[in-house]
Design a protein that fits this description.
Number of strands: 5
CATH architecture of the largest domain: 2-Layer Sandwich
Strand content: 5-15%
CATH superfamily of the largest domain: GAF domain
Distance between the termini: 28 Å
Order of helices and strands: HHHHEEHEEEH
Number of helices: 6
Helix content: 40-55%
Largest sheet: 5 strands, antiparallel
CATH class of the largest domain: Alpha Beta
Strand order of the largest sheet: 2-1-5-4-3
Shape: elongated
Number of domains: 2
Length: 263
């Protein structure tokens, strides 16, 4: 329906421009010699036509570009869903998690819930829930970029965390957000970029930091996942699945943030 509307709009503008050009041509040929007033009217109409032509061109180009962008986003979204589907169907992951029934491909729709979120808080809640199912992280925090700051939107397993809490520039999550780089740590004490003892109260030595970016590589936030259940270690398959989930969900987050800016 949208394509039909765009086509009809373009056709209508083209017809108007063509008829207007014809009218201007006839008017110019019929201009009486020596009548300045008629000539002035013609020049005014010519300027109005020029502005209309420019505005019509901008509208048509904007419509085509918008449609092209939506098509590219839809194609990329379909690819991400397919990748996530394939990952969810991996037997090694199902055996490791021991929850084959939860990870059945027919229930893939569950992992698309963030796309139906109506607020950023609801979006973050859905992402946290799906991340827990995908990788078993018991402590998860979602930070969203607002202005120049990264602010906590939602968390799980962190009783002292407060919504709106700002991430310090020296924090590891902030640095990964700036670099738009994933951090996959299997052993914190031997990792080349960290190499420090595990914090008190944490049983697992493994964690993930994943920037939230759109297909166009626009940075929207970052998500931290720690404390894998049973003090386990996150796997590459789990990292891949969470990354695909976040890429899919980022489309909706971008829309929600744009809606917030308009309010």
């Amino acid at each position: 329906m949208k394509k039909i509307f765009d086509f009809l709009l373009t056709l209508l503008l083209t017809i108007i421009v063509a008829l207007w050009v014809y009218r201007l041509s006839i008017t110019y040929q019929a201009l009486p010699k020596g009548e300045n007033l008629a000539y002035i009217y013609f020049i005014v109409e010519l300027w109005i036509f020029t502005f209309f032509l420019i505005a019509s061109g901008i509208v048509v180009l904007w419509t085509w570009n918008t449609e092209k962008q939506k098509t590219e986003n839809s194609q990329e979204l379909a690819k991400e869903v397919k990748r996530l589907s394939l990952l969810l169907d991996r037997k090694d992951f199902q055996i490791q998690r021991g929850k084959t029934d939860e990870l059945d491909i027919r229930k893939l729709e569950m992992f698309l819930r963030p796309l139906r979120s109506s607020t950023t808080a609801e979006w973050a809640t859905h992402v946290i829930e799906e991340c827990f199912v995908l990788c078993g992280a018991r402590r998860i925090s979602v930070f969203i970029k607002r202005g120049e700051n990264l602010l906590l939107e939602k968390s799980m397993g962190l009783p002292d965390a407060k919504v709106g809490q700002k991430v310090a520039p020296e924090d590891l999550a902030f640095r990964m957000f700036q670099k738009q780089k994933r951090l996959f740590v299997t052993e914190i004490e031997t990792h080349p970029e960290i190499g420090r003892p595990n914090r008190m109260g944490y049983a697992s030595h493994s964690f993930l930091i994943i920037p939230i970016t759109t297909y166009q590589q626009e940075a929207l936030g970052v998500i931290n996942l720690t404390e894998k259940e049973n003090a386990g270690t996150f796997t590459q398959t789990e990292l891949d699945m969470v990354c695909h989930l976040i890429t899919i969900a980022s489309y909706r987050l971008k829309t929600l943030l744009e809606q917030e800016e308009k309010l």
